[in-house]
Amino acid sequence: MVRAGASDLYGEAARILARTGNPTRFANEAAYASYTGTAPVEVASADKQRHRLSRSGDRSLNAAIHIVAVTQARTPSSDGYAYRQRKMAEGKTSREAMRCLKRQVAKRLWRTMRDDVERRMADVLVSA
To answer: Where on the phi/psi map is residue 46: left (φ > 0), alpha (ψ -120 to 50), or beta?
Structure first.
């Protein structure tokens, strides 16, 4: 049975796959995070240093990752919910915790897509 809202996530997953293309074109997860606009940017003012989300990158891809992160943050049974709660317990604000979660979502997406491409390429080489 498909839960309400799951079809929205399928659309976001399709957008992530389409906008990313071949994930092996990114040298590492940091390069992918920069491309998606989820890499944090350091902002310093006087004695206070903090991070904010980048305003650059693929905004459509960033929006799709945001939908995934918000869904995870609102679902108590998800890893994202626990991660966000842990960050807030560390003293981060809700927005800072969400920024951290978006970065983690981007990291997991890149690793999953990269591993899938590498596995498919290995299967092609074995069967050839």
So the answer is: left
Chain-centroid distance of CA 96 in Å reads 15
Closest CA to 72 of 31, 19, 12, 1: 12
Count how many Cα atoms sit within 13 Å of the Cα of residue 80 in the half-sphere of its side chain. Answer: 22
Question: Which run of H or E residues covers position 53?
Answer: strand 48-53
Residue written as tokens 């079809």? 7
| 78 touches 38 (CB < 8 A) | no
Start-to-end CA distance of the chain, whole Å, equals 39
Angle of helix 59-73 relative to helix 6-20, nearest 10 degrees?
A: 140
- Global pTM reads 0.84
Segments in the chain below pLDDT 50: 1-5
Q: Quick one: CA torsion of 65, 67, 68, 72, rounded to 10 degrees?
A: 140
